[in-house]
């Protein structure tokens, strides 16, 4: 995208001109949809995120400061944050899940591991690597959530979120009852 077109879009946004949104959608829509999809991993949700993002962009257009960030960076952040919020919202409303909110009480080990029971370690590669790392640290390396946070240099809140999402992804592979039984075997 040319700098002239970007500047024109910014001017239109600051003037609250509807043409700005058409140009934004035309030139950034597909890319921002891709950003949303990468986070939510669902086409329908990604479309919702894109729509919500464009609404936020329109409402917050007076807050954009070209001296602080390029237009795409600003659009990217709004879309990514909207996608994360949407994912959290959907996750909160989803079926009841294994709740492990008390982080430091679980000291997980592998002493009683029965390899024939299930191939969880082999199936970790079916989920996103950021969740694999957390599940591996907690269930196979015996770390507490705080220890995993320190060792992996990831904030504790992020460890908790990734654990929750990682367990949900594994639940999709195994089903909730079988997954719960297997994970309880590790404790």
UniProtKB/TrEMBL annotation:
PROSITE patterns, from UniProt?
SIGMA70_ECF
Q: Name the SUPFAM superfamilies for this protein.
A: Sigma2 domain of RNA polymerase sigma factors, Sigma3 and sigma4 domains of RNA polymerase sigma factors
Q: Which Pfam families match?
A: Sigma70_r2, Sigma70_r4
Keywords tagged on the record: DNA-binding, Sigma factor, Transcription, Transcription regulation
- Keyword DNA-binding in the entry? The reply is yes
Location of the RNA polymerase sigma-70 region domain = 24-89, 124-172
Please give the InterPro entries that the UniProt record associates with this protein: RNA_pol_sigma-70-like, RNA_pol_sigma-70_dom, RNA_pol_sigma70_ECF_CS, RNA_pol_sigma70_r2, RNA_pol_sigma70_r4, RNA_pol_sigma_r2, RNA_pol_sigma_r3/r4-like, WH-like_DNA-bd_sf
Please report which protein family the annotation says this sequence is part of: Belongs to the sigma-70 factor family. ECF subfamily.
What is the protein name stated in its UniProt record?
RNA polymerase sigma factor
């Amino acid at each position: 995208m040319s700098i002239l077109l970007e500047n024109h879009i910014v001017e239109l946004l600051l003037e609250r001109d509807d043409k700005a949104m058409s140009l934004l959608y035309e030139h950034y829509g597909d890319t921002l949809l891709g950003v949303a999809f990468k986070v939510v991993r669902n086409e329908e949700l990604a479309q919702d995120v894109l729509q919500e993002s464009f609404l936020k962009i329109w409402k917050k257009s007076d807050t954009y400061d070209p001296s602080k960030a390029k237009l795409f960076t600003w659009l990217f952040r709004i879309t990514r944050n909207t996608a994360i919020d949407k994912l959290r919202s959907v996750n909160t409303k989803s079926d009841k899940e294994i709740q492990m909110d008390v982080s430091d009480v679980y000291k997980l080990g592998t002493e009683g591991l029965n390899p024939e029971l299930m191939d969880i370690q082999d199936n970790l590669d079916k989920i996103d690597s950021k969740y694999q790392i957390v599940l591996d640290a907690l269930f196979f390396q015996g770390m507490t959530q705080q220890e995993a946070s320190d060792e992996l240099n990831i904030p504790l809140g992020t460890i908790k979120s990734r654990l929750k999402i990682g367990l949900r992804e594994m639940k999709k592979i195994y089903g909730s009852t079988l997954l719960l039984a297997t994970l309880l075997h590790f404790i």
